[in-house]
């Protein structure tokens, strides 16, 4: 059974893991993709705006994530120790592995489009919580006609880490 970046959208993650475990046959494996590291596209200093834009966006995303989790029906605060949560659901943790996606600068048009899509969602979602300088910086980064945009910059890259936890149903 595979659950990719979805369990965190369920209010009671412990109960969801127990339901997954109940549906597995003996010897069946659950693979859970949750966590990892925030994606990176740009160096800390990009020559426009204030240095550290992505770190500030990360902080806003963490706040959004916490509010999203709290607003879910039946939300239960849970320590994100996936191996322990899998064990509590009656599964035997068999491994944890992180996968690195590293597309160095200058990157591909497809990676640039992904960077623009992610930054665009952040601009739209966090716009009112960003200061004027960060809003203006994002607007420039998203404008395909601007030489400073992620569509045209030579220093755009794509770096991400995704973590997968596996567990087996025994007995």
Structural class estimated from helices and strands: alpha+beta
Strand tally is 5
The rounded distance between the terminal residues' Cα atoms is 17 Å
Radius of gyration equals 19 Å
Q: Shape, please?
A: elongated
Query: What percentage of amino acids are in beta strands?
Result: 15-25%
SS summary, helix count: 5
Please outline the major beta sheet: 5 strands, mixed
How would you state the average pLDDT, rounded? 96
Number of domains: 1
User: What's the order of the H and E elements?
Assistant: EHEEHHEHHE
Pick out its properties.
171 residues; alpha+beta; five-stranded mixed sheet
Topology of this structure?
Layout: E1 2-4, H1 13-23, E2 29-33, E3 37-40, H2 53-71, H3 82-88, E4 91-103, H4 109-126, H5 132-142, E5 158-169
Parallel strand pairs: 1-2
Antiparallel strand pairs: 2-5, 3-5, 4-5
How would you sum up this structure, described in words?
It is built from five helices and five strands. The protein has 171 residues and is an alpha+beta fold. The protein has one domain (2-169). Strands 1, 2, 3, 4 and 5 form a five-stranded mixed sheet that branches. Helix 1 links the parallel strand 1 (2-4) and strand 2. The model has no long low-confidence stretch (mean pLDDT 96).
Compact description:
This protein is an alpha+beta fold and 171 residues long. It has 5 helices and 5 strands, in the order βαββααβααβ.
